[in-house]
Write a structure and sequence with these properties.
single chain; about 425 residues; alpha/beta; Aspartate Aminotransferase, domain 2; 2 domains; four-stranded mixed sheet; about 40% helix; about 15% strand
Length: about 425
């Protein structure tokens, strides 16, 4: 049985300090029940909580720790840089070093601008799109989450779906009305949206790998249709790759699918676990940003040298030949091992994956399990989240820390060995038997 006395005490204290006792909603364990775990340290693929419980970590700080916790190269870069000063509010060489690494390896990113979060990156990219096109409307997709930016908290996923709402109080109706929402994987609805609003759309924004409300893998043809419609109507296409960027491959989903957006937003991995965000694109667009152009965006901690150094150390490791193929192979082994057991037992459960991102869901696939995906938010059965809560608890008891929400995806890191994967398959099989058997 898990020990939770220290985590419980810390949570009770936190309830008097923070709304809901947390500083980000999904951490509160509301959708899975029980007391949130407070972590003390991470070591490679494993984490240890305040009570000394050790888990194989499938969350990885929600994706950025692609090398695992406390990777020596990242830790060395952080400590070396912090010893020289944590922030200057002025240019540093570390910004140039990370910027050059990204620009040299992502062909369509000719210029990049760093900031402190993925939300800021999306907010700034949309402002740039509006400034470049002199239009106001933004098209987004139901089930895609782009941070807590007012105009995009409309039919959003992630923490909002976990809390059972599709929008947020405090967002003025006038802002919501500037956002056109279209279902994922619905070509006819997409055509109609552009036919109705195309001449007023500044941009369309999509997670090319939607991974905040389940893993809603899209057909490449749908993404190509979106690309073509944006070009035809003069709207910019923004790929939100805060999760998929440098995770499904060094060039992200853009290079995975062979589709070039006008702008791309990054976060997570490019900071090596430190707070970071970025947006980038062709020089002709990026020159519209202040101080070169009229679109204003600033930030005291943008390009923070500690985050830049950590990100450079991490991305350099990701360039190792075979890095992504090895990581994908281990993820596939995990998913196939669990799926084989579910099929054998007749459980309505499967795990989908792309690269090292995976997501399990409690509903039967079609007969062709190899090609069938859940592709829309409204295809997820809300009642399945109660079952996920039971699976989450069963996994904790078996030494596995998964995301505390059934809508959230999981991640493997380079620190997850073959032995870890074997243990994970065994833990999932046992947990599924306990919940569904």
């Amino acid at each position: 049985m898990l020990r939770r006395e220290r985590s419980e005490a810390l949570y009770q204290e936190a309830l008097h300090l923070f709304p809901g006792g947390v500083n980000s909603p999904v951490r509160a364990f509301r959708s899975v029940g029980g007391t949130p775990l407070f972590f003390q340290r991470g070591e490679g693929a494993e984490v240890v909580d305040a009570d000394g419980n050790r888990f194989i970590d499938l969350c990885g700080s929600w994706g950025p720790l692609i090398l695992g916790h406390a990777h020596p190269a990242v830790v060395e870069a952080i400590t070396r840089t912090a010893a020289k000063g944590s922030s200057f509010g002025a240019p540093t060489e570390e910004e140039n070093t990370l910027g050059r690494l990204i620009v040299d390896h992502v062909p369509f990113v000719e210029r990049i601008r760093f900031m402190s979060s993925g939300t800021e990156a999306v907010m700034s990219a949309i402002r740039l799109a509006r400034g470049a096109t002199r239009r106001d409307l933004v098209l987004k997709f139901d089930g895609c989450y782009h941070g807590h930016f007012d105009s995009l908290l409309v039919n959003a996923g992630s923490g909002l779906a976990t809390l059972g709402t599709s929008s947020s109080a405090g967002v003025p109706q006038a802002l919501a009305e500037l956002t056109v929402v279209v279902p994922l994987n619905d070509p006819a609805a997409l055509e109609q949206a552009f036919a109705t609003h195309g001449d007023r759309l500044a941009c369309a924004i999509i997670e090319p790998v939607p991974a905040n409300n389940g893993l809603l893998l899209q057909d490449r043809s749908f993404l190509l249709q979106l690309r073509e419609l944006c070009s035809r109507h003069g709207a910019l296409l923004i790929f939100d790759e805060v999760i998929s960027g440098f995770r499904v491959g060094f060039g992200g989903a853009s290079m995975l699918y062979g589709i070039v957006p006008d702008l791309v937003t990054y976060g997570k991995i490019i900071g090596g676990g430190m707070p970071v965000g970025a947006y980038g694109g062709p020089a002709a667009l990026m020159k519209l940003i202040a101080p070169d152009g009229p679109v204003y965006q600033a930030g005291t901690l943008s390009g923070n040298p500690v985050a830049m150094a950590a990100g450079h150390a991490q991305l350099t490791a990701c360039l190792r030949p075979g890095f992504y193929t090895d990581l994908e192979a281990r993820t596939r082994t995990l998913c196939e091992g669990v799926n084989a057991h579910a099929r054998q037992k007749g459980y309505a459960y499967a795990i989908d994956h792309v690269g090292s991102i995976f997501w399990g869901f409690f509903q039967a696939r079609s007969a062709d399990a190899r090609s069938a995906h859940v592709q829309r938010a409204d295809a997820i059965r809300p009642g399945s989240m109660r079952t996920y809560g039971k699976l989450h608890a069963a996994l904790l008891e078996r030494g596995v820390y998964a995301a505390p929400s059934g809508y959230e995806v999981g991640f493997l890191s380079d620190a997850h060995t073959d032995a870890h994967v074997t243990r994970l398959v065994e833990a999932f099989r046992s947990a599924l038997d306990a919940v569904l058997g």
